[in-house]
Amino acid sequence: MTQVFTKVTAVRGMNDALPDSGARWEQLEELVRRWLSDYGYRNMRTPILEHTRLFTRGIGEVTDIVEKEMYSFTDSLNGESLTMRPEFTAGMVRAAIEHNLLYERPQRVYAMGPVFRHERPQRGRYRQFHQIDVEALGLAGPDIDAELIVMVTRLWKVLGIKDVQLELNSLGQGEERAAHRAALIAHLEAHKDVLDEEGLRRMYTNPLRVLDTKNPAMQAMADAAPKLFDFLGEGSRAHFAGVCDRLDDAGVSYRLNPRMVRGLDYYNLTVFEFVTDKLGAQATVCGGGRYDGLIELLGGKPAPAVGFAIGMERLMDLWGQYQPQNLRPECSVYLIHQGDAAQRQAALLAERLRDAGISTIVHAGSGSFKSQFKRADGSGAQIAVILGGDELASGAASVKMLRLEGQSDALAQQLVPLENLVAFLKDKVN
Ligand code: HAM
Fold this sequence. Notes:
eight-stranded mixed β-sheet, alpha+beta, 21% strand, 17 helices, 2 domains
C-alpha cells in the first residue's frame, strides 16, 4: 500500500520570497545598506534565539508582545526558556553590554533580518517579518533624535516614497510618567462605567494602553483623560523642543500625537512613528524613540540610547507602489551549445567570462537551438553566445544580441574568434 504524503505548506503568517521578489529584496537591502553607511552606521548580527527573560525584562511584562506574541519554548536539553526575537533592540543592547561595546565611545549600529510575533496575519502583519533596526547607543542629546528622524525621511527620498507622515510625542521621564499614571488611574476609576473588559483588566497594569482603544463608547473618556505632556518637567520639555527645532531646520514636517504610546515599555522622552494611508490597516512603516533606561535595566552601566525599526514587508509594499519593479535579468550572457564537446567547452568559457565579471548561465543539458534560444530570451540575458559544431570547427562563437530592438539581423549576430570573445563581450555588456 502506498502512503499518501500530505503536502507541507509554509507556516501561517510566514512568507516565501520567490526569485523575482527575492531580487527586489536584494535591491532594497543594497540601497538600505548604502543609506545606513552614509550616516556612519555599522552592521551587527545578533542571534535569533535569546533567553526569554531578556524580552520580558526589556520589552515589559505587560505588553502585547510579551503577554501573547512571543514564540517561546523550553530547551529540552537544559530546561531554559528561549524566545525567537520579537524585535532587535533588546538583543542589540544585550550584546553591547556583554561585549563592552560602549566602553570607549558611543556606537551607531544597525541590524537587518527576521523577527517573530504571534499576531493574527493580514496584509502588512505577519508572524515572521523583517526589520531594519537602527540604534544609536551612548548618545543623549536631541540632536541625535532629530538626526535619526531626518535619516528616515532621506530613505523615503532614496526610494521615491511619498505620503508618509511623521508623528511625534514625548513620554518624558519615569517620575513624570508615574505622576501622570496616578492621575490617569484616578480618571479611569472615575469613569469605570464606560470601560470595556479589556479596559478594566488593564487600568492598573497599563492604563496608557486603555486610552489606545478603538471602542467608540470609550472615546470621550479617552479624549478627556489627563495628558502626559502636561506632566512633563523643564528638562523633558527642553529636549522635545530641541528635537522639534532641528526638524524645523531640516524642513521635516510632523504632527504631535500625544496619544502615541508605542507597544514596548522601554521608551522615554522622544517617541515617533511614520504612518501612511497606503498600506491598509497596518499604517506604521517605522517606529522608534529614546530608551535611556534600557541599558541599565539589562545590567549595563547607565547610558542613553535612541533608535527605530522599519518593517521591511511594509516598506517593500510601499516602495512597489511608487517604483514598480524592473525585473533583473538572471544573467548578462546565456551560453547555447550543441553536442557534448561544445557543452564542455561552454562550461570552461563561462568560467572565463565570470573571471571577467560577466554573469553567465550555461544552458543545462541539451536541447534544440530553438528551445535553448527560448530559455536564453526568458532569462533576460542581453547576449546569447552560440557554440555549435560549425563555430567550434572554425575556432569561433556566434554572438547574438538579444535586446537590440529595430536593428538589422546583420548587426544583431556576428561570428567572433574564441580568443577575442571575452574582450568582445566585456565591451558589449553594460
Ligand atoms: P515596533 O513598532 O514594534 O518597534 O516595530 C517596528 C516596525 O516593525 C513597525 O513600525 C512595523 O513597520 C513593523 N512591524 C511590527 N509588527 C509587524 C508585523 N507583525 N508584521 C509586519 N511588520 C511589523 C520595535 O520593534 C522597536 N524595537 C523599534 C526600536 C528600535 N525602538 C528603538 N530602537
